[in-house]
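Possible regression after last week's pipeline update?

I re-ran a chain I had predicted before the update to compare outputs. Posting the input and the new output here so someone can diff against the archived version. Not blocking, just want to make sure nothing changed silently.
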Amino acid sequence: MKTRFKIILIVLSLNVCLFPQANDKYIRLKTGIHFDSKVSGGEYDPAELGAIVDRSDLDVAIITDHDNMKVSYGIAPFQNLLKYSIEENSVRSFGVKNYLNLIDQIDNTYRDVIIMPGVEAVPFYYWQGSPMNENLRLENWHTHLLVFGMNSVEDYQNLPSLANGIGFKTPSGHLFKYIGTHFMYFSTCLLAIILFLISFFSIVRQKTTLDIARVHRKSYRYRISWMALIFAVIFGVYLKSEFPFLPRLYDQYHENPGAGPFQQLIDYVNDKNGLIFWSHPEVSHTEERTVNIPLIPQKIVIETEAYPQLISQTTGYTGFAIFWEGFKIIGKPGGLWDLVLTEYCNGFREKPVWGIGELDFEESNNLSLVTETNTFIFAKEKSRKGVIDAYRAGRMYSTRGFTGNKIVLDDFSAYDMRTGKNAFIGETLPLSHPPVVLHIRMKSLENSKSPQTVFLFRGNVCIQQFQLFNLLDEWFVDENPPKNRMFYYRVYLGEKWQTLVTNPIFVKR
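New output (post-update):
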């Protein structure tokens, strides 16, 4: 048996055309994702970013300014009416249509690079503490997702968030139970409606006087009740703020609702055929900021804890940023990425989860940083459509630490020896019969004095190691693949510090 496999490897290594190369139909494009411009707090305006990208060796740049930067704090029970808001620069304040048109104009300026618009979505935050006690805390403000690939201005304008509205709690068959659950809310609305009607019909009062000399003659005079007018306006504005008189699905005043608001955003983006990736999921953020709340100037604490758990608590998203800030807990072998990929293989998720390399480029005089962390995609064509299709299909690998400038992965593919079928990164190989043959081809763009270790993983288990000097071109036969319905392979580069990770190749039996 081993002799037969050795013969097969010799034949394959001599490039006998038993199998077509899995990556022959794709173009490798070096992508930088997550640039912030002056639209939402970056150092460079979008046109300057376009020039920076054009001077780099990037093929694709995806600019993702914050969709909104607005927080509001209201006084209970009239939070939607009596509230104080702070809003900073964002796509929302710049104008979504203006933003998308500007990125399109910049893209048309440069022939050699594709520049695409997207947003860094800020869907939810919540408050703890009180301004009266001077211990106000803004939580989860930096829990973000990258969104791009949607088709229209309206799609981006209506992204679910606390600034735009996340939705309402609607009855699901049990009306009385629904009303009972939200009794206080509906009671408050009903009381406001009654008081509004009483005030409204009391604005103009009719006064009747009787002429004593002429008993049968009455005179009428009308007067305006300013107090009734004021109350009618107050209750009218309140009712307008509560329209359509349904409790909000999520708000910023009732502690941490978990994954719910983010799942709403994910579902919306999927419905609009867009792509959505968790951004910097393992980063914690804490800062203090002075705010001038009327009559109560004070400092508030803005805090976001790392949120790797949301990778497993949400479904339907396209992927997550494995580099830089998604590797220690999620992306490492045996981490949460393996958990969700296994769920997909076992039929508990409808689609797989992909990893990307995220730049998060905001401000730096060192412009070479645009190639520090990159995603290399394999597209069918060099166009926006080709880029979106490649990201959606997971045909990509991620690098950090400028590894993408030094090492190139040409091929990682799996073959069924019996049928000759193959699968590339992000694809699924239908396996008729074991074994699985895997091919890895990588090359160094610099002369290396010491080798780098390349790890081939099946699931979370390393099944083979290789040494990369200047060229690695290896075939490996997995003689005893799992009997599971579906499993997957990935490649990691680096022994102590991983700097390159591919997306999985799935094998389905």
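Follow-up from reviewer: compared with the archived run. The chain has 13 helices and 27 strands. Marking as no regression found.
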